[in-house]
Amino acid sequence: MRLTKRKMAAALREHGYKLTPQRRAVITAIASSPDHLTPTALHRKVQQDHPTIGLVTIYRTLEILVKLELTCELHAGGSCRSYTIAAPGLHHHLICSDCGEVIDFSGYYLAELEQRLYRETGFEIEGHLLEFIGRCQNCRQNV
Amino acid sequence: MRLTKRKMAAALREHGYKLTPQRRAVITAIASSPDHLTPTALHRKVQQDHPTIGLVTIYRTLEILVKLELTCELHAGGSCRSYTIAAPGLHHHLICSDCGEVIDFSGYYLAELEQRLYRETGFEIEGHLLEFIGRCQNCRQNV
DNA sequence: ATATAAATGATAATACTTTTCATTTAGAGC
DNA sequence: GCTCTAAATGAAAAGTATTATCATTTATAT
Description:
Oligomer: homodimer
Number of domains of chain A: 2
Helix content of chain A: 40-55%
CATH class of the largest domain in chain A: Mainly Alpha
CATH superfamily of the largest domain in chain A: Winged helix-like DNA-binding domain superfamily/Winged helix DNA-binding domain
Shape of chain A: flat
Order of helices and strands of chain A: HHHHEEEEHEH
Structural class of chain A: alpha+beta
Number of helices of chain A: 6
């Protein structure tokens, strides 16, 4: 189940952040898009309804949303960073190198590996980033 | 066993790239550093011995080295991209969120998961990026 | 309704990366 | 070794992404 706008707003409040129209707009845009969006793309989307919102506010809001784990950040080669709403348990990505489609997936737990790494290196693992790059069905067929 | 400078140079040749002094210098710098270096850091290092080499050449050379899989690219939160010599079979990273230390590790194969993803989504997987973020032993102790 | 700390937008500054183009050079062929 | 040519280089500029500054506005507690 994906996070709802309502829950995201509540989480902001809980952590002492004000619920401004701008932040609502960003949340709405993220929550209503299945895609990963770059800050600029998100800005364009938000501006459709709220033309005065600045790109800087997008950056600032994303920073908060990522900190509260309400959105997740994607790093895929090249100039990176795009964002999408966080889906609990779905923190891995499958990225098409051709069309850029992103599929989230879950069901693979890295806990065992994390423990081994802790024993061997003393690293206390806080998070991970697992991304696969490939070519999606469509792109493979439309050669 | 890590790649030697000699092998990297040979690989360049094999693929029809010229072996210029600048490229030698970049290869030397990468091969002799255990750390992941950003393009800028690499530039500084190279300039110690070859002050005239431009940053653009660093970027261009890195592009080739990554394409030939002689170096690997790291994406770790924030403004990303750093590079290190590729160690065959060691394509995963353990990054300290505190001091930035990077440990490569291997021994965990994602082949099984890749096959499952192929069956379920039709994605033909070409590569992956697995990175753990955490705090290294030192940073945990020196609170 | 008011006070206040936080948030916003405009602007500028900074950093990162790519493009363009004239000049230089590595390496193939002789 | 010398010549030729395609490829590589460096300088400069352009393009893009991100962060900082600051005066003004605003959400919310009271």
